[in-house]
Write a structure and sequence with these properties.
mainly alpha, Serine Threonine Protein Phosphatase 5, Tetratricopeptide repeat, two-stranded antiparallel ribbon, 1% strand
C-alpha cells in the first residue's frame, strides 16, 4: 500500500488506497476477426479467470500469431502479463492495442495503471487524461487519476477527481477514505471527518478510516472524538501499540494522567523498550512534578536511543529547574551536537550558564538561540547581556 505521511508529531500517518484493478476489455465487436484467433482468445480468458496466467499468456500469443491485427488479443495479453508482473511487456502490449484501436479508453487506463506500478507518474497521468477524454463515465479512471494527482502533490486536482468518482459510484467506501485524506492535506479537517464517517457507514470495521478520522479530529482539537476512534481501533486489535500510545498522548493533553498511565503501562508491559511510551511517560511524570521518575524515563530513552535529542532536552530542562546546572549543561550540549540548529538548546544552556555566573558564554548561547529563530531569547539578551 502506498502512503501519504502527514509530517506532524504524534499524529497517525495517512494511507491512501492504491489503484484499482486492471479493467476488462469488453468491446466484443472485435471478436469478428479470425475465427481461430477468437477461439484462442476465448480459451485464454478461461485460463485467465482460473488464474492460470502463464497458460493464458500462451493462448493470447497463439491468437496474435493467427491475427496480428487483433487489438483484443494484445489487450488481454497485456492484462495477463501484468498479472505475471512482466510490466514492461504489458506496456508494449497495451501500446500495440492503442495503435490498433486508438479509441480504446480501457487500454489507456490499463497502461496507466502499469505506469503507476513502475512509478512513471507523468506517463500514467497522460494516459489517464486520454482515457477520460474517451470515456468520461469511468469511475476507475477518475479514481486512479485522483490517487495519482495526490501522489504528485496536486491535492486540489485530486479532490475534484474524487468528487467526480464518487458522483459516478457513491457506494465505494475507499473513495471516501481517499477523499478524506486529501481534504485533510488541504486542512479541511471537518470535511475530512465527514468523509471518513461516510466511509464507516459502509464498513464499520474499517481500521484505516478510524485512524484517519482520529488524525483529523486531533488536528481539529477534538481530542475526545479522537480518543473514541482510537478506542474503536484498539477494540478491533488489542495489540495495536501505536493506537494505544496515541490514545495515551491524548489523555495526557486532556490532563487525564491516570488514563494515560494505564495505556502506557500496557505498552511497556508488552515491550519495556518502547521509547515512545517511555518518553510520553516521562512527560507525564514531569507534568506531575515527579522529577526523579521523569529523569529515569528520559534516561532509559537515551540508553535505548543515544540520538534522541528531545530526551536530552527534556531531561536537561528538569535538571535546570532543579538547579543541577552542570548536568543540565551537559544534556543541552549533547542536544546541540545532535541538532545544532535547534535554538531551544542554546537558550536553555545559556540560562544554565547564567546561573553559574558564566555571563560571557551564556550571552553567546543566547545570541545564537536568537539567530536560529528562537525569539524568546531576545528578552533574556536584553535583560542579562548589556
Amino acid at each position: 500500500m502506498k502512503n501519504f505521511f502527514l509530517p506532524i508529531k504524534n499524529i497517525v500517518s495517512i494511507s491512501l488506497y492504491p489503484v484499482l484493478f486492471l479493467n476488462l476489455y469488453l468491446n466484443l465487436h472485435l471478436l469478428t476477426g479470425c475465427s481461430l484467433s477468437s477461439q484462442y482468445i476465448s480459451e485464454g480468458l478461461e485460463l485467465y479467470d482460473s488464474t492460470y496466467y502463464k497458460e493464458a499468456e500462451q493462448k493470447f500469443l497463439e491468437a496474435i500469431a493467427e491475427d496480428s491485427s487483433s487489438a483484443e488479443a494484445f489487450f488481454h495479453l497485456g492484462r495477463t502479463r501484468s498479472q505475471l508482473q512482466s510490466y514492461r511487456s504489458a506496456v508494449e502490449d497495451f501500446s500495440k492495442t492503442i495503435e490498433l484501436d486508438p479509441e480504446n479508453s480501457e487500454a489507456y487506463l490499463n497502461r496507466a495503471i502499469i505506469y503507476i506500478e513502475l512509478e512513471e507518474r507523468r506517463k500514467a497521468l497522460d494516459d489517464l487524461n486520454s482515457s477520460i477524454e474517451l470515456n468520461n463515465q469511468s469511475y476507475t479512471a477518475f479514481f486512479n487519476r485522483a490517487y495519482l494527482k495526490a501522489e504528485m502533490g496536486d491535492y486540489e486536482g485530486s479532490l475534484l477527481d474524487y468528487d467526480e468518482a464518487i458522483s459516478l459510484n457513491p457506494d465505494d467506501p475507499k473513495a471516501y477514505v481517499n477523499r478524506g485524506n486529501v481534504k485533510g492535506l488541504l486542512k479541511d479537517h471537518q470535511g475530512a471527518i465527514e468523509d471518513f464517517t461516510k466511509s464507516l457507514e459502509f464498513d464499520s470495521t474499517n481500521v484505516q478510516a478510524y485512524l484517519n478520522r482520529a488524525n483529523d479530529r486531533v488536528l481539529a482539537e477534538d481530542y475526545e472524538g479522537a480518543i473514541a476512534d482510537f478506542t474503536e481501533v484498539i477494540k478491533q486489535n488489542l495489540q495495536n501499540i501505536d493506537a494505544i500510545i496515541r490514545r495515551g498522548d491524548l489523555y495526557f493533553r486532556l490532563e487525564k494522567y491516570d488514563d494515560a498511565n494505564t495505556d502506557l503501562s500496557a505498552v511497556l508491559k508488552a515491550n519495556p523498550k518502547n521509547t515512545d511510551a517511555l518518553m510520553l511517560r516521562g512527560d507525564i511524570k514531569a507534568k506531575q512534578q515527579k522529577n526523579k521518575e521523569a529523569i529515569e524515563d528520559y534516561a532509559k530513552v537515551i540508553k535505548l536511543d543515544s540520538k534522541s535529542s528531545e530526551a536530552y532536552f527534556k531531561r536537561g530542562k528538569i535538571l535546570l529547574d532543579t538547579k543541577k546546572y552542570d548536568s543540565a549543561i551537559k544534556d543541552f550540549s549533547e542536544m546541540i551536537k545532535l541538532n545544532p540548529k535547534d535554538g531551544r538548546a542554546y537558550h536553555s544552556r545559556g540560562l544554565a550558564k547564567l546561573k553559574l555566573k558564566k555571563k560571557k558564554d551564556a550571552c553567546k548561547d543566547l545570541k545564537k538561540a536568537g539567530e536560529l529563530g528562537y525569539f524568546d531569547a531576545y528578552a533574556d539578551i536584553k535583560k542579562y547581556c548589556k
